[in-house]
């Protein structure tokens, strides 16, 4: 909860500083560089909801399934995770910006939209489209992550031999597992115990 409060306060301060930097008239004209949707334009609120939901879910999926998952550190390394998340944010922003006149693109993060709107003092009746899809995507991602967690290896990638537990319907004892080996040439062999 403290994190959410600090993010919200920080985004409001940032939005106010941006308005101060470009001037109030320009901030009103450009919607302070934030999230904007003209409901009378070609993009409906429902369409914006779908784009925001899909963008937020994709970002959460990559972030917590690959980029920030500590069990994937050995596979991707420490530097690739943040790079993947940053690249996805850039791709989402580039692919959703300018889809239709009167639509600024996916906001992805509710604090960003809220802070910039507070900075300029402009609120609309359909602002929920920047908040509700993100929370719905987070809830759906939590359910998916709970029922289908990311794959984790029992052995590190650097190991040349890794015991595999059971696996067959007739095997009752986990001690009678198979062994997977990797030789110098990269050939994987499976030794099954009967």
Please give a quick description of this structure.
The chain crosses the membrane at residues 46-68, 75-94, 128-148. The chain is mostly helical and 194 residues long.
Please write out the topology.
Elements: H1 2-22, H2 24-29, H3 45-67, H4 73-96, H5 110-120, H6 132-147, E1 161-164, E2 178-182, E3 188-191
Antiparallel strand pairs: 1-2, 2-3
Folded structure, characterized:
The protein is mainly alpha-helical and 194 residues long. It folds into 2 domains: 2-147, Glycerol uptake facilitator protein; 161-191, no CATH class. Helices cover 52% and strands 7% of the residues. The chain is built from 6 helices and 3 strands, in the order H-H-H-H-H-H-E-E-E. The protein has helices spanning 2-22, 24-29, 45-67, 73-96, 110-120, 132-147, and strands at 161-164, 178-182, 188-191. Strands 1-2-3 form a 3-stranded antiparallel sheet, with no helix packed on it. The longest helix has 24 residues, at 73-96. It is elongated, with a radius of gyration of 24 Å.
Descriptive labels:
Glycerol uptake facilitator protein, mainly alpha, 194 residues, elongated, single chain, three-stranded antiparallel beta sheet
Gross morphology: elongated
Query: Which structural class fits the helix and strand makeup?
Result: mainly alpha
Under the CATH scheme, the architecture of the largest domain is Up-down Bundle
- Domains counted in the coordinates: how many? 2
Helix share bin: 40-55%
Number of strands: 3
Residue runs with pLDDT of under 50 for 5 or more positions: 166-175
The CATH class of the largest domain is identified as Mainly Alpha
Taking Cα atoms only, what radius of gyration do you get, to the nearest Å?
Answer: 24 Å
Stated plainly, the CATH topology of the largest domain is called: Glycerol uptake facilitator protein
Mean pLDDT: 78
Q: Give the N-terminus to C-terminus distance in angstroms.
A: 54 Å
Number of continuous helical runs = 6
**How much of the polypeptide forms β-strand, as a percent range?**
5-15%
Sketch the topology as an H/E string, one letter per element.
HHHHHHEEE
Q: What oligomeric state is this? A: single chain
Q: How many strands, which pairing sense, and closed or not: the largest β-sheet?
A: 3 strands, antiparallel
CATH 4th-level superfamily of the largest domain: Glycerol uptake facilitator protein
Largest sheet strand order: 1-2-3
């Amino acid at each position: 909860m403290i994190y959410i409060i600090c993010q919200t306060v920080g985004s409001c301060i940032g939005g106010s500083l941006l308005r101060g930097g470009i001037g109030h008239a320009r901030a009103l004209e450009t919607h302070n560089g934030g999230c904007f949707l003209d409901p009378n334009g070609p993009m409906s609120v429902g369409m914006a909801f779908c784009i925001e939901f899909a963008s937020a879910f994709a970002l959460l999926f990559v972030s917590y399934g690959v980029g920030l998952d500590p069990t994937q550190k050995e596979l991707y390394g420490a530097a690739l995770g943040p790079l993947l998340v940053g690249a996805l944010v850039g791709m989402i922003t580039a692919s959703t910006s300018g889809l239709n006149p009167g639509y600024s693109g996916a906001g992805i993060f509710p604090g960003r939209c809220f802070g910039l709107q507070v900075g300029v003092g402009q609120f609309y009746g359909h602002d929920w489209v920047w908040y509700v899809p993100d929370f719905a995507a987070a809830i759906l991602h939590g359910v998916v992550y709970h029922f289908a967690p990311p794959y984790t290896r029992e052995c590190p990638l650097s190991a040349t031999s890794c015991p595999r537990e059971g696996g067959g319907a007739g095997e009752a004892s986990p001690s009678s597992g198979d062994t997977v080996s990797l030789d110098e040439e990269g050939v994987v062999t499976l030794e099954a115990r009967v």
